[in-house]
Amino acid sequence: MASSRARSSDIKLIVSATVAVVLAGLFIAGGMLVATSSGSKNPVCGELNLGKASDVRGRLETQGSSFVTGGASCGFWLALDNGNIAAYRVQQPSGCAVNLRDRGTRWVCGGNTVDPANLAQYPVSVQTVGTTDALIIDLRPPELSSTTTTTTTG
Fold first, then answer.
1. Does residue 65 contact residue 78 with C-beta atoms inside 8 Å?
2. pLDDT digit string (tens) for 67-126?
3. Domain for residue 21, yes or no?
4. In terms of residue numbers, what domain contains 63?
5. Which of 60, 81, 64, 69 is nearest to 137 (CA)?
6. Is 153 within a domain?
7. Same domain for 59 and 83?
8. Phi, psi of 16 (to 5 degrees)
9. Cα atoms in the Cβ-side hemisphere of radius 13 Å centred on 133
10. What is the CA radius of gyration of the chain?
11. What is the distance between the alpha carbons of residues 126 and 37, in angstroms, rounded to a whole number?
């Protein structure tokens, strides 16, 4: 039979382990809460490197326009507009969402056909990353964006 001293030591060990597990659980739950609560409904997106600019242009020329998620609510349509690469925002300032219809021949927003010239865009630029000319889409809001011009070489 275990002595009272051993029993007391076992109880302290069990209580300490229980407290440690509870504290670890609270720490993990707190971390999850912080990670999932953004504090605002409009996430701030950053710059997105789409890869080698000439490869992206080649895909657009051969396969046509494509949807890119951009993460969170920062999706956009990548397309050629008069030979220039354009990144049309999915969520337009008017509140409608842009979609490409009729096998890539017609832009629709809120059920209405829209001229691409009237669609809000993200700034597009070609920047040297290492030894590659990369196509960069600036998904940040204009007030946070350092890129204000659109460069579409590549």
1. yes
2. 998 877 788 999 999 999 999 999 999 999 999 998 888 999 988 999 999 999 999 999
3. yes
4. 47-138
5. 69
6. no
7. yes
8. -60, -45
9. 12
10. 26
11. 34
Task: Indicate the SS3 state at residue 118.
Answer: helix
* Domain shared by 29 and 98, yes or no: no
Same domain as 79, residue 4: no
Residue 52 one-letter amino acid: K
Closest CA to 135 of 125, 148, 123: 125
Helix (H) or strand (E) holding 7: helix 4-36
The DSSP string of 12-63 is HHHHHHHHHHHHHHHHHHHHHHHHH--SSSSPPP-EEEEEEHHHHHHHHHHH
C-alpha dihedral sign at 79, 82, 83, 84: negative
Residue 36 contacts residue 82 (beta carbons within 8 Å): no
Backbone φ and ψ of 146, nearest 5°: -95, -15
pTM of the full predicted structure?
0.64
Handedness of CA 74, 106, 93, 125 (dihedral sign): positive
Cβ pair 123, 150 in contact under 8 A:
yes
